[in-house]
Each structure stands twice: as C-alpha cells, then as structure tokens.
Design goal:
122 residues, mainly alpha, 2 helices
Amino acid sequence: MGEQLDVTPAGIRRIAGELEKAVDKLDSELEALANDMTGQSDPFGGDDIGSLIGMCYQAIHDMAMDSYSSNVEELDAHVEALHGLANGYETAEYAGKDAATDAGKTVQAAGLEINRVRQVLG
C-alpha cells in the first residue's frame, strides 16, 4: 500500500507560505530584470537594420514580460486558494467535531429517555 497523506490546515498554510515566498522572489527577480533591461542603451544601432532588430527585440521582450507577470499573478491566485482551502478544511473539521458532539448528546438524551420509560413502566 502507498504512503499515507496527512493533510492538515497548518500544513496547507505552511505550503501556501512557502509558495508565497517563491512567488515574491520570482516577482522581485522579474522586476530587477525589467529594470536592468530598461537601463540598457540602444545596443542595435541607429541604422535601418538596427531599428528593425530593436523593434523585434522590444516586441519579444514585452510579450515575455507580460507572460512572466501573468504567471506571477496566477501563482498569487494559487496562494490565495491554498489559504482558502486551509480555512475551509479547518471549518469542516470543527463542524465535524461539533456534529459528533451533538450526535453524542442526542444519543445520550435518547438513552436517558428510554431508561426513564423503563422506570415508569417498571
């Protein structure tokens, strides 16, 4: 049989925190790259061919940066979803415990009623 998977709200929150740190690092590295690329002078020259290369480069650069930014946003959404999952799991866990406690009280009350009927009927 395979390994047992132990899922807890705390474990889910821990994973969400680790993912959030990775996303923050990725975001800061992406911002540093964008700033570094913006600071570059025109390396392609001012002639017609250099201008064409520069325009192509800029279009590719913009598409790549948009894609990277979109990925960071998606990962941020996953972090939020993990926090929501942990909260939902915890709520369900407490609701299950409360339901079990209530059921136990109901069974106990029913048992007391049955004993009382027995006492009355003798």
